[in-house]
């Protein structure tokens, strides 16, 4: 495999770093959201057990953050292939450097920096969204115990927190599209 | 005599000790009911006395020891099935939809398959919110029915 500027041997490192970023940060956010709102639910459940079912919504939302990270990780994993496929850092033009690539059945549709960016995008927005969901979930369910009208507002705030992670997912999906 | 010493030398008779703070409980009630008619304060029915090991089970020390605990689930089974269903949907739904639609609908375009997976996760969330709201309403209806019956 020819070593050149745009497809060095360490290029797959960045793709795998993207996978790790997506899962680590996304799951950190989801874990914080689940744990923090879980504390609130445990506090509410001792006084008003009938509200537990509705109070579990922040936990479900935090779970979705992890699903976003999972989706992006699976997408990147599908693109990181061993040789004879080339894995470039960015926009590696196959025909220019490897005229016989088609005969080797090699595909050139990956770029490490894009995958790193996609993973960080979904991972760090997931961290932000999970943090917001945790705090809003904790305070929200405690308030809901005392005032039932809070519920709609709480769900709305949770949705807006959740959308932060969704934005990261959309950007990551677009970045992933650019690689192939 | 042994018993009196064991209770810290307080000088109580066993009769008084047995009808202690837990005298309303079933055990001690049956024990004390028989001698009341025929005995004075000092006489005892030896067979009903407990040995040292059994005294650990005294009602005033562990009030629930003689009763059967209620270990039936506090949450109705339907709620548990609902939660299990949503858990399963959350685990298997999105990633399953990704691999299902990847080759069948989107012909290898992983971006759309990924978007479908994210959409599926949100569908599960919306379904959960709807189910949670409905449960609240059904509980209200049940409460109203019980109130009607009570009148």
TrEMBL record, chain A:
<feature type="domain" description="V-ATPase proteolipid subunit C-like">
    <location>
        <begin position="116"/>
        <end position="175"/>
    </location>
</feature>
<dbReference type="InterPro" id="IPR000245">
    <property type="entry name" value="ATPase_proteolipid_csu"/>
</dbReference>
<feature type="transmembrane region" description="Helical">
    <location>
        <begin position="56"/>
        <end position="78"/>
    </location>
</feature>
<feature type="transmembrane region" description="Helical">
    <location>
        <begin position="113"/>
        <end position="138"/>
    </location>
</feature>
<feature type="transmembrane region" description="Helical">
    <location>
        <begin position="150"/>
        <end position="175"/>
    </location>
</feature>
<keyword id="KW-1133">Transmembrane helix</keyword>
<dbReference type="InterPro" id="IPR035921">
    <property type="entry name" value="F/V-ATP_Csub_sf"/>
</dbReference>
<feature type="domain" description="V-ATPase proteolipid subunit C-like">
    <location>
        <begin position="18"/>
        <end position="76"/>
    </location>
</feature>
<comment type="similarity">
    <text>Belongs to the V-ATPase proteolipid subunit family.</text>
</comment>
<dbReference type="InterPro" id="IPR011555">
    <property type="entry name" value="ATPase_proteolipid_su_C_euk"/>
</dbReference>
<protein>
    <recommendedName>
        <fullName>V-type proton ATPase proteolipid subunit</fullName>
    </recommendedName>
</protein>
<comment type="function">
    <text>Proton-conducting pore forming subunit of the V0 complex of vacuolar(H+)-ATPase (V-ATPase), a multisubunit enzyme composed of a peripheral complex (V1) that hydrolyzes ATP and a membrane integral complex (V0) that translocates protons. V-ATPase is responsible for acidifying and maintaining the pH of intracellular compartments.</text>
</comment>
<keyword id="KW-0813">Transport</keyword>
<keyword id="KW-0472">Membrane</keyword>
<keyword id="KW-0375">Hydrogen ion transport</keyword>
<dbReference type="InterPro" id="IPR002379">
    <property type="entry name" value="ATPase_proteolipid_c-like_dom"/>
</dbReference>
<dbReference type="GO" id="GO:0033179">
    <property type="term" value="C:proton-transporting V-type ATPase, V0 domain"/>
</dbReference>
<dbReference type="GO" id="GO:0046961">
    <property type="term" value="F:proton-transporting ATPase activity, rotational mechanism"/>
</dbReference>
<keyword id="KW-0406">Ion transport</keyword>
<feature type="transmembrane region" description="Helical">
    <location>
        <begin position="12"/>
        <end position="35"/>
    </location>
</feature>
<keyword id="KW-0812">Transmembrane</keyword>
<dbReference type="Pfam" id="PF00137">
    <property type="entry name" value="ATP-synt_C"/>
</dbReference>
From TrEMBL, chain B:
<keyword id="KW-0968">Cytoplasmic vesicle</keyword>
<dbReference type="GO" id="GO:0033116">
    <property type="term" value="C:endoplasmic reticulum-Golgi intermediate compartment membrane"/>
</dbReference>
<feature type="compositionally biased region" description="Basic and acidic residues">
    <location>
        <begin position="51"/>
        <end position="62"/>
    </location>
</feature>
<dbReference type="InterPro" id="IPR019013">
    <property type="entry name" value="Vma21"/>
</dbReference>
<dbReference type="GO" id="GO:0005789">
    <property type="term" value="C:endoplasmic reticulum membrane"/>
</dbReference>
<dbReference type="Pfam" id="PF09446">
    <property type="entry name" value="VMA21"/>
</dbReference>
<keyword id="KW-0256">Endoplasmic reticulum</keyword>
<protein>
    <submittedName>
        <fullName>Vacuolar ATPase assembly integral membrane protein vma21</fullName>
    </submittedName>
</protein>
<keyword id="KW-1133">Transmembrane helix</keyword>
<comment type="similarity">
    <text>Belongs to the VMA21 family.</text>
</comment>
<feature type="short sequence motif" description="Prevents secretion from ER">
    <location>
        <begin position="148"/>
        <end position="151"/>
    </location>
</feature>
<feature type="transmembrane region" description="Helical">
    <location>
        <begin position="112"/>
        <end position="131"/>
    </location>
</feature>
<dbReference type="GO" id="GO:0012507">
    <property type="term" value="C:ER to Golgi transport vesicle membrane"/>
</dbReference>
<keyword id="KW-0472">Membrane</keyword>
<keyword id="KW-0812">Transmembrane</keyword>
<comment type="function">
    <text>Required for the assembly of the V0 complex of the vacuolar ATPase (V-ATPase) in the endoplasmic reticulum.</text>
</comment>
<feature type="compositionally biased region" description="Low complexity">
    <location>
        <begin position="30"/>
        <end position="43"/>
    </location>
</feature>
<feature type="transmembrane region" description="Helical">
    <location>
        <begin position="78"/>
        <end position="100"/>
    </location>
</feature>
<feature type="region of interest" description="Disordered">
    <location>
        <begin position="1"/>
        <end position="69"/>
    </location>
</feature>
<dbReference type="GO" id="GO:0070072">
    <property type="term" value="P:vacuolar proton-transporting V-type ATPase complex assembly"/>
</dbReference>
């Amino acid at each position: 495999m020819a070593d050149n500027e745009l497809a060095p041997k360490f290029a797959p490192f960045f793709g795998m770093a993207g996978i790790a970023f997506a899962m680590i940060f996304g799951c950190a956010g989801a874990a914080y959201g689940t744990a923090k709102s879980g504390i609130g639910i445990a506090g509410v459940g001792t006084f008003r057990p009938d509200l537990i079912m509705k109070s579990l919504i922040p936990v479900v939302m935090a779970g979705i953050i992890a699903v976003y990270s999972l989706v992006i990780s699976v997408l990147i994993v599908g693109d990181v292939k061993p040789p004879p496929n080339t894995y470039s850092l960015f926009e590696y033009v196959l025909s220019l450097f490897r005229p016989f690539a088609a005969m080797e059945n090699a595909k050139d549709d990956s770029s490490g920096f894009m995958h790193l960016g996609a993973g960080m995008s979904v991972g760090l927005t997931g961290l932000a969204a999970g943090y917001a969901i945790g705090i809003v979930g904790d305070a929200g369910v405690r308030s809901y115990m005392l005032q039932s009208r809070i519920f709609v507002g709480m769900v709305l705030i949770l949705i807006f927190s959740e959308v932060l992670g969704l934005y990261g997912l959309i950007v990551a999906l677009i970045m992933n599209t650019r690689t192939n | 005599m042994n018993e009196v010493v064991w209770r810290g030398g307080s000088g109580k008779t066993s009769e008084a000790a047995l009808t202690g703070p837990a005298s309303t409980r079933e055990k001690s009630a049956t024990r004390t009911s028989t001698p009341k008619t025929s005995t004075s304060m000092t006489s005892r029915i030896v067979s009903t006395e407990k040995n040292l090991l059994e005294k650990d089970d005294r009602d005033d020390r562990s009030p629930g020891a003689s009763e059967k605990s209620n270990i039936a689930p506090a949450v109705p089974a339907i709620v548990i099935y609902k939660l299990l269903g949503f858990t399963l949907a959350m685990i298997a739904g999105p990633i399953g939809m990704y691999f299902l639609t990847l080759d069948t609908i989107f012909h290898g375009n992983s971006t759309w398959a990924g978007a479908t997976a994210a959409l599926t996760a949100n569908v599960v969330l919306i379904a959960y919110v709807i189910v949670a709201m409905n449960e609240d309403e059904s509980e209200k209806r049940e409460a109203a029915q019980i109130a009607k019956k009570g009148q």
